[in-house]
Design the sequence.
């Protein structure tokens, strides 16, 4: 897909070169190709529309019409806009808080929250030399609490026990208290997720957020959700002040469009990508590289 777009744009650039004047219709032809490529990459339609509108506005301004190499200029506008939307460079986890720095993990069930919590614990231990505690507020699925216990052990972090009989708020407060008393640098709070967006659950996570005052509120989202990721992203953005995104299961998604959709809808930077089921399958997200993957 990616190289196909590059080929198409190159051909259109060549056609444009033979013309004395660049018309709005040349630009439209190229934008159509870009639009198709984004849709093929599974970027959500409203996000594609916005993106094309922004490129068009720039392209039909002096930038392209007045330039000596209008085709190339248009391609570079597309690339620049993509980079601007995706965010530039990489952004690591923010731990600038009175310890323990609390990180709240939010997202739908199955998105990869628990796995990511452990991966992040390992990352913070190994790369940032932090003392890390994890806790699960998923009182609806006892198996989820056990799962966190298992993966936390693999990560080499400490797990704070919780039970389905407890209230998530009490669990979180208890863990925070323990983390303070035992000088943990970071407390990772894994939360419950339903299969679909659920009002009661959103209310619960909002209260949890208010109680633990996290320095990072990470939205964990499955890249394979493709276009559907925007609805989930919208709901979580409305409920919580998201500070970052973790895009999971990128290893199973060759198209990469969810990144652009989620990034545009939430405005939050994509901080990490999940690239395998294993505990070390977490990469710091490289926005520029990913932009290249979408458009080629
Ligand atoms: P949660 O319900 O949000 O806590 O999701 P889990 O952490 O239980 O993950 C759901 C499933 O997705 C599990 O089978 C994980 O092994 C798998 N998973 C999570 N992250 C990744 C990833 O980056 N790549 C792959 N291939 N699988 C992942």
Sequence:
């Amino acid at each position: 897909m990616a190289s196909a777009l590059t080929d198409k744009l190159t051909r259109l650039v060549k056609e444009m070169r033979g013309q004395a004047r660049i018309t709005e219709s040349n630009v439209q032809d190229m934008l159509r190709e870009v639009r198709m490529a984004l849709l093929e990459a599974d970027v959500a339609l409203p996000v594609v529309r916005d993106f094309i509108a922004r490129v068009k506005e720039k392209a039909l301004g002096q930038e392209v019409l007045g330039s000596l190499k209008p085709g190339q200029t248009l391609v570079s506008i597309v690339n620049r806009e993509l980079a601007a939307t995706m965010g530039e460079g990489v952004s690591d986890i923010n731990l600038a808080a009175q310890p323990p720095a609390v990180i709240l993990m939010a997202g739908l069930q199955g998105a990869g929250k628990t796995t990511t919590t452990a991966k992040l614990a390992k990352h913070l231990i190994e790369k940032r030399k932090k003392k890390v505690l994890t806790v699960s507020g998923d009182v609806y699925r006892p198996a989820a609490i056990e799962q966190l216990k298992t993966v936390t052990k693999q990560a080499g972090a400490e797990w704070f026990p919780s039970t389905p009989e407890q209230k998530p708020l009490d669990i979180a407060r208890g863990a925070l208290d323990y983390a303070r008393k035992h000088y943990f640098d970071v407390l990772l709070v894994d939360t419950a997720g339903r299969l679909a967006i659920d009002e009661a659950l959103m209310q619960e996570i909002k209260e949890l957020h208010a109680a633990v005052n996290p320095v990072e509120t990470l939205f964990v989202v499955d890249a394979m959700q493709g276009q559907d990721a925007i609805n989930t992203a919208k709901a979580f953005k409305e409920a919580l002040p998201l500070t970052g995104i973790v895009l999971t299961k990128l290893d199973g998604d060759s198209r990469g469009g969810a990144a652009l959709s989620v990034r545009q809808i939430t405005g939050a930077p994509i901080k990490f990508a999940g690239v395998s089921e294993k505990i070390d399958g977490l990469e710091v997200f490289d926005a520029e590289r990913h932009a290249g993957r979408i458009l080629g």
Notes: Residues 24-40 form the longest helix (17 residues). Residues 107, 109-115, 193, 248-249, 251-252, 274-277, 281 surround guanosine-5'-diphosphate (CB under 6 Å).
